[in-house]
Design goal:
Blueprint lengths: L1 E8 L4 H14 L3 E8 L7 E9 L14 E4 L19 E5 L14 E5 L1 H9 L5 H12 L4 H9 L4 H17 L1 E3 L2
Parallel strand pairs: 1-4, 4-5, 5-6
Antiparallel strand pairs: 1-3, 2-3, 6-7
Length: 182
């Protein structure tokens, strides 16, 4: 089983990103589940959401304490040590960032992926909702699913012009993600 923990703030799409990610895995032939955890339901409040993926049915519905991958949607959260607590040695991190600083901070990981998701989201949808950009980057960095699966999932959540814009976001996230191996 692979476990993924997403960190963001209310309004950035972390909860919907987890749902779309689980849907993308299902479209790719896996079993997946997603669920959120948040305190105060307000824009800007810290949010975590979780995704589990396996070849067999998933029954566990607890918080993920030792993820294989951590996804950070808010660029300011990449500086919070709490975000990386429990990340498995050899795990993967995907950051919304314009560059990778402090490379030594990520020693022992399989890969660190970065994408300037905020910039892409602002250019494509004119608001800093980074979830579909991050999903494209996730596909590029991990190789755990295809971009086509991500695009199929996005089609279940958006329609018309928003669909077109979010497809471009995911495609750009996939194309513009930079991967650093430690």
């Amino acid at each position: 089983m692979q476990e993924i923990r997403l960190h963001g703030r209310g309004g950035q799409g972390a909860v919907v990103a987890a749902e779309m990610l689980a849907t993308a895995f299902v479209k790719g032939g896996k079993y997946a589940s997603s669920f959120p955890m948040f305190g105060f339901e307000r824009r800007g409040a810290p949010v975590m959401s979780f995704v589990r993926v396996d070849d067999a049915r998933i029954r566990e519905r607890t918080q993920i304490y030792s993820p294989d991958c951590v996804i950070v949607l808010d660029p300011l959260l990449k500086n919070s040590p709490a975000v990386f607590v429990g990340l498995k040695k050899g795990g993967t991190v995907i950051l919304n960032a314009d560059r990778l600083s402090e490379r030594e901070k990520y020693a022992g990981l399989e890969a660190v992926g970065i994408v300037d998701a905020t910039k892409i989201a602002l250019e494509e949808i004119a608001i800093p909702v980074t979830n579909t950009v991050i999903l494209g980057a996730f596909a590029a960095v991990t190789g755990w699913l295809t971009l086509d699966s991500v695009l199929l999932a996005i089609k279940e959540y958006f329609s018309e012009k928003l669909l077109e814009k979010n497809i471009r976001c995911a495609q750009r996230g996939f194309a513009e993600a930079k991967v650093y191996a430690s």
